[in-house]
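Would you kindly consider the sequence and fold I have copied below?
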Amino acid sequence: MLVAERHQKIVELVNERLSIRVSELSKLFSVTEETIRRDLEKLEKENKLKRSHGGAVSVQEESETDVSEREITNMAEKRAIAYEAAKHITSGERIILDASTTAWYLAKALPDMPLTVITNSIKVAVELSKKEKIQVISTGGMLLPKSLSYAGPLAERSLAAYHVDKAFLSCKGFHLDSGLSDSNEWQALLKKCMIDSADQTIVMVDSSKFGVRTFVQTAQISDITHIITDSCVENTTKQILEEKGIKLTTVQPKTEAFSL
């Protein structure tokens, strides 16, 4: 493959996924990580993408991604993270699940046991409706069609009426300085309410989100109790989180073949 063709495909992948890791690009194109870093440096100078810690992010205008696209992005990582998160939920607890696809995978992974689950996600609510012992409370509010979720003032007031043991959230960006961020302001505001309502906040995020800053800040790192991510997270990130006193659990996803 010619260098120019590789550069074009890198930009296409970054714009499609919004963010991607150097290690993943190295495997996809069968070149060294150092070669990919040089590619990203050149493409950043051309304003075609922006380098981040361990990868690159899109410079295209951010908007909420359609739920059908999010379901198939980093699917193996999200499933592994969700199944690990399910291990941290015990019978009788009251929890919040956000409208992320990882939360939907968590809903699928949960056993049918006594739980109270508050969610703003239509897909999560429908998935949990199949489990007789789980009581589901929907926030209601303004419908966001792309994510099939509720947000806005009504949803925020609904959450303010509850207190839960744990909130399970994801995000579009996780930066070690600025914390969690999202591309949609309504979702970001609602996640702040979820964190305020919970004794513990567990963030479920695949490693491609580390080093990424998106449009709206959701939370500071100090607001987080526990992070569950995949095993590709960099050692420097692990060390910094450990120094900040944040519990970190990594999981090994089952990799699937990817063809260009």
Summary: The chain has ten helices and 15 strands. Residues 156 and 193 are 6 Å apart (CA to CA). The first strand starts at residue 19 and ends at 21.
